[in-house]
Design a protein that fits this description.
Number of domains of chain A: 2
CATH architecture of the largest domain in chain A: 3-Layer(aba) Sandwich
Radius of gyration of chain A: 20 Å
Shape of chain A: elongated
CATH topology of the largest domain in chain A: Rossmann fold
Strand order of the largest sheet of chain A: 2-1-3-4-5-6
Distance between the termini of chain A: 41 Å
Oligomer: homodimer
Strand content of chain A: 5-15%
CATH superfamily of the largest domain in chain A: Response regulator
Chain lengths: 205, 205
DNA sequence: CCGGCCCCCCAAGTTTATTCGGGTTGCGAG
DNA sequence: CTCGCAACCCGAATAAACTTGGGGGGCCGG
């Protein structure tokens, strides 16, 4: 394992950045070479600077962290560690699939970040204890929707009426109702008005 | 102005806690006497320790930060500074009404926290520049709902049908529809399916 | 290849929601 | 006082959404 690693922090909260800088200051193997507060600038930064480890927050105002991940992974040999709050647990699976090497919750003690970095650099996939817990709870028997159902859910989330949906998809209104009934069944809700809410909970959409 | 202040940090992210500790370490007037990651324990802490300044995150898993604020303000002479992310901007007005002395966004540079502390201790109400911006944008002409409209909004949020609502309130279904139409108008949405979502955005309900 | 399963679709009939016209009350400004 | 306005309510007619029952097509595994 090489002796030294250059770290880029990507997080929209300056205070969190400070916390991470402080954390890495106590570990000589790591040097923080930059800290960005917006996703848009990450691509350019990693092109121009010798970064080999990125600490990436999933929740940022301008770009969804997950998109940044997709952008930088693969562009060069870079290890990405996800740092996330409670609200993005549903994206974690996807992040790992995209090539993230570790996941740590902001509710973990800071040392977990170090542990994650070292494990990831050693070639392991690391998931912090707190994260493992949370994922276990959040992972219900998986709800799978057909593409038609997804499409209708999507329109539903935008507040379209059945009539409008029928028009857009060029099908009859009762057919839309039928699909919605399926959504109700699969999402286990009794009223249409709860479908979108539930879908968000399950991180569909 | 007294020479020294004892600070309690309340935030569910240990890394943010570290960042704040680091920040205050550079200012001799302030000593961090504790950091809590859950709201429930705040009441007990301020009873037993000499705290005169609380840095409070509004977004915590167990208790809404705003409730903690209500609990500790007034119990003794304590200055409370709100530190919040993007998602709770709607609660800020309420927090100030409850007696918070300053509001800082997590998207502000850390020095803003110091500035807020000093201003608040000097007797001012401090709102960080970033926060002032965000509040300006978020503050539409205030939406006021009648008690009937609130009641119906409440039932709506629980996914009740118009029929059920009519039954519960002992009024006719068309009357319920009428109130719902009023809600649509006041909340400026075109579809019923968006009413509840919008109500959440505006911090009604 | 055939039956089961899932997805997709629709017409007719029923239930639910909305609009429309019209009425009551209370309250503040002119 | 009386006008205007906002909130509240209803019945009847209209529009929208839902359920039911039934038909296809594709894709297994037997």
């Amino acid at each position: 394992m090489s002796a030294h690693h250059n770290i880029l922090i990507v997080d929209d909260h300056p205070i969190t950045q400070s916390g991470l800088r402080l954390l890495f200051a106590g570990h000589e193997r790591f040097t923080v070479v930059g800290a960005l507060d917006r996703g848009a600038t990450v691509g350019a930064f990693v092109q121009s600077q010798p970064v080999d480890l990125v600490i990436l927050d999933l929740n940022m105002p301008d770009v969804r962290g997950i998109n940044i991940l997709a952008e930088i992974v693969g562009s060069r040999d870079m290890t990405v560690i996800i740092l996330t709050g409670e609200s993005q647990y549903g994206e974690v699976d996807y992040a790992l699939k995209l090539g993230a090497r570790a996941v740590v919750s902001k509710a973990d003690p800071p040392e977990e970040v170090i542990a994650a970095c070292e494990a990831a650099l050693a070639g392991d996939i690391y998931i912090s204890p707190h994260m493992r817990d949370a994922l276990g709870k959040h992972r219900q028997p998986p709800v799978t929707l057909s593409s038609r159902q997804m499409a209708i859910l999507h329109y539903l989330a935008q507040g379209e009426s059945n009539k409008e949906i029928a028009y857009r998809l060029s099908i009859a209104q009762p057919t839309v109702s039928f699909h919605i009934a399926e959504l109700r069944r699969k999402l286990d809700v009794s009223h249409n008005r709860k479908i979108v809410e539930r879908a968000h909970e399950l991180n569909l959409l």
